[in-house]
## 1
Amino acid sequence: MKLTLEQTTKCYGDKIAVDHLNTTFENGVYGLLGANGAGKTTLMRMICGILSPTSGAIQYDEQDITSMGEEYRELLGYLPQDFGYYPEFEAKEFMLYIAALKGIPPMMARRKTKELLELVGLSQVARKKIKTFSGGMKQRLGIAQAMLNDPKILVLDEPTAGLDPKERVRFRNLISDVASERIVILSTHIVSDVEYIADQIMLMRGGCIVAIGTVEELVETIAGKVWEVVTDRCNADALCGKYDIINLRHEQDMVELRIACDGKPDEDAQPVTPTLEDLYLYEFRETTEVK
Amino acid sequence: MGSLIKFEFRKIYKKRMNLVVCCITIFLIVAFGIANIVQTYTYNEKGDTISGRAYVKYKKQIAKKLEGQLTNEKAKDVIAEYQNMVATPGYYEGEGEDGHFTDEVYCSYFIPHRQILLDIAHVYDEPGAQTWGSNLNKLSLNDIKPLYEAKKNRFQMILEAGSGDWNYTAAEKQYWTKQYDKIAEPVTYGYAEGWSTWFAMAGFFFYVLVGIFIIMSTVYAGEYEQKADHIILTTKYGKSKVIAAKNIAAFLYGFLLSTACMLIMALVCFGWYGAEGASLPVQSIYFQSTYPLTNVQAVLLYVIMCYLASFMMIAMTLWLSARMKNGLSVLAVMLLLAFVPIFMNESMTNGVYNHILALLPYNAILDGGYNKILSYPFGSCVLNYMNMRIALYLILAAVIIPFAGCAFCRHEVQ
């Protein structure tokens, strides 16, 4: 099972949202990390077939996904960034509707609906109208609907938006449980969401994948470039103006800074073990080291 | 597929705005029906205003007296009686165009005979003219042609003269002459108040059309607005069966709402005024009509035409809904299409324009057209106004609806 992107490009007028992207997805969890406008959502929409690439191709097992039609969509589970729902529908009713759209037989649809609503913690409110749901509940319902057809390709755009920390942990566990034997592509701004569960992390910027690899592999690329220093306020201000600060914490008269830069930023700075968040901030820093 | 249709139907009827529009539409039809019952009145022989059940009873009494065939001889007797009444001292005031019956005679004689008098009088009007009975007193009983001969003469003169700059083709003339010859003469009169009320009320169905396209405007556009299209279009049947399901649900909803309103109209017309006169010829209501139909046939055709007009409007709304990004844009286009013809008058000179205007939904619903000689020639094939509307709306609905499906299929999320 292989999902291949070949020179996939999407342009809106002069703006290139996705730029000649070449990559292959196989079984496993892929975490798409990138700032707003990096092209994550556009890429996901193209993978889901609801947006046509301006050029290039997307293939599933050597077959063009557009020509596969229903056969391809049958393999898909998609949670969009802005999850459209029907306010007057009950949660269960909505799930059964999506099940009908996915061509799931009624008996199985009822069983899967029950299972998934339980799994996402919505079984108690299955008969409640969606308009009464909180943002987090709607998001959980969105996750449940995406998984109704036991998809071989699960595409989740910002799945943890609106979820509280406990729900995020539950979601991460859920994805880990179902990740075997399927392609899971999820995008997020929250690094910790993918740090624990993604087999591969893809960093996107300007429509391109700028880095790809496991968490360890990626973090390794900035080994020796993350520093911590405890200094006075005056020096801290100077360092803030000069470098990209990953974290800043005040301790009485002193300031503890975590800095990402190629060279040692201060004589008291100590190298620390980098994290994925450090990498993210390093890769998406707005300026160069020397401002 | 069945469950998809069920869900799509549920989406339409559960939407609060749709529920409100549906209730308003039904309320309007009920209100128009009640208004018809309450506001319809006449004067009895004593000059008292009568309405409600008394009106129905009185109309039945009058119809009983005049029922039967209106033969040439009877028509002559009616004219003679009219002229006698006018000549009787104290019955008629004034002279010529300004003359009129006294109130007492107006109520006791003219009102009960009004329809038959006007029907006969119109036969002796010049083509294109309507004197509303004022010519009756000028007719010479010895010189005038028998009623049905005069009627046919007038009909042939209209065919020869044409309408505005519209000259009937040979095929049209042949068609209408054939139709005319099928009309049973002499025309049989009787009580048909329910049927004539139906023809008068049918125009209110236009408001049902408006209600329907307001509801249908969001069938596809609503998915885009709510961003539910993102999910739908990625599902197995998101670009196939769901389109059929949406269209079927929309047509079903439109059909049910139309039927509910038709039933209300039927209840008012036939429940209140009675269904007597179903088998009478439509000429008992529209004496000059060239449609060889009974009242029930004429009403059924009218009903079919109304349904097809609503289907055509549904198809058009669905297509626009699938193409446009929001329901309001759809509504704006449909409202223009529906209401602009209200402000477009018939041309005195342009027959083609009039033929097109007559097909626009407002004009089409408002008038059954049974008293018009309006036809659409396609070479040797001629469609009368009613058949043309039925054919056109059916074809348009069938042709447009696949475009709605294509537009939704090709839709790309924003």
## 2
Amino acid sequence: MTTPKSLFEKVWEAHAVRTLANGQTQLLIGTHLIHEVTSPQAFGMLRDLGLKVAMPHRTFATVDHIVPTDQLVEPYRDPLAQAMMDELRRNCAEFGITFFDRATGKQGIVHIVGPEQGITQPGTTIACGDSHTSTHGAFGAVAFGIGTTQIRDVLATQTMALGRLKVRRINVNGRLRPGVYAKDVILHIIRVLGVNGGTGFAYEYGGDVFDRFSMEERMTVCNMSIEGGARAGYVNPDQTTFAYLKGRPYSPAGAAWDEAVIRWKSFASDPGCHYDDVVTIDAASIAPTVTWGINPGQGISIDERVPDPAQAKAVDERSSIEEALAYMKLRPGTPIKGTRIDVAFLGSCTNGRLSDFQEVARFLKGRRVAAGVKAIAVPGSQIVALQCEKLGLDRVFADAGFEWRAAGCSMCLAMNPDKLVGDQLCASSSNRNFKGRQGSPTGRTILMSPLMVAAAAVTGTVADAREVFAVNQN
Amino acid sequence: MALAKISSVTGRAVYVPGNDIDTDRIIPARFMKCVTFDGLGEFLFHDVRKNDDGSDKPHPLNEPRFKGATILLSGANFGCGSSREHAPQAIQKHGFRAIVAENFAEIFFGNCTTLGIPCATAARADIARVAAAIEANPATEVVLDVAAQEVRFGGQRITVEVRATARDALVNGRWDAIGELLDGLPAVQSRARALPYLAA
């Protein structure tokens, strides 16, 4: 009998090429996803070294960070954005890489495009020059965010040098209460384990809640693994995974499909395998969660009050609360509910998928965005946009007073025209609330689930979506 | 491709206090609209160093007495957030050659090592000792001895840790893995043949 192994161990062993002199592993990266921001310098390095792309057929590109969501026609108003676009196009053409350009109708945020094309598959390794590459772990892939020099390494050799991670199993058991979503689950996990609690670990998510979750919900959780300090996060592949992948453009078909499913199943963690740590969370203890500070671990449930530095146990904790409250312009010990917002942002690689817009639209119908609030809804890909538009969801958002935009990263990180101005406060379905993250050096972000963003948009304040939309009665 | 063997870094140091200093703070995303890394050093910590009108905010990197420092000291979870190599590139292009902090975010740590920037971890109290010494005398010579895993300054020393794989890579001049990875290409090809999803 063989020793039971975790998915991480199995995928690692299947892709480990050899041990390098410093003890790291040369790890084969089966799928390399690239985008316009972190790849141009890597191609430059490749040219300087006179190297080719080792496996252009396993390299896929899209454009997401810099694309304007309100301008489809090139040249873009921002010449720097246009230059990055041109550079990616040139690099893909020169090295024979498939590029999901806007003209293909398949463009979108890289972590939405990979899964919807069926490129993201169980038992594979994936790398991308973006920390939210952990998203792809939802399929039982081991997916790493990497830097530009490593992009060069993967381009040139289809491998990278990496030390093996430990594995922490995170069980979320029981049932989520109505109005509590995948976003709340991951914000809760980060709150409990800390923003650097995952350092050195891959997170394996499981338990009742993940068994029931759709692929899109699993992606939302895996997406923010990095916000918890974990370099990778994954869910074991199951029937939900296979049903999602069946019939996608890059999914195996015919006899190859059946073989693939057998192989994919074999990668799932074995019962009784070793975990370096196990954490169990009761789903019923998770409330709609919002951040109050300047990192994603600074979260509270919607009913709680903003922390008071005077109550802090350690000096360090006190100074970090003080710094966060000063930046956020929040008063210690006050309820977060009722905090006035200026902007509502729905979208990003965390929450920019069809089900996110469907769930919000279900409740938003017939409601109006509060006066003085700028609300934007940004589908994560052209395909998501089309799916929404076929269902008439774009009308629901537009009728409610949301601007319905074209696919891109948009206001998640403000490398495009969608930015906060001054110290605007944004209710955001994105993943980071760092100082200045949304484009203004004094701009403020409160992270929350898409439905909570909608509740904030219609009330003009941070609000409990369960009350605003009478969620329990639906 | 002979790489420098980085067994130590010697220079003056500057302390940027705080935990969870993220990559957006190190280099705000709007400065990443570029196709080379040139010129990023100028924008290091931009939004915490500069007011909207371009004037200086109070920040250690704006203080003339710390100009020219090559060793950066900071707190816990340094470099968290994005995988952008623009962050360590900005740090390096600003003139830093090493970072000493309580601990580092994973991707940032790897990016630094690949650029030949040693990242050493140390206890908070020990970092505070170095910070106190440079506060008292910014001209203090600080030596990060990567091989011996210690920092020496003004007649004192603290113990630091540089992860074994990174230490080996730095000290032996193989911190940029590309040469070794390329040497492995035949093994890569045979490994790839065993994985059906990699078939052309």
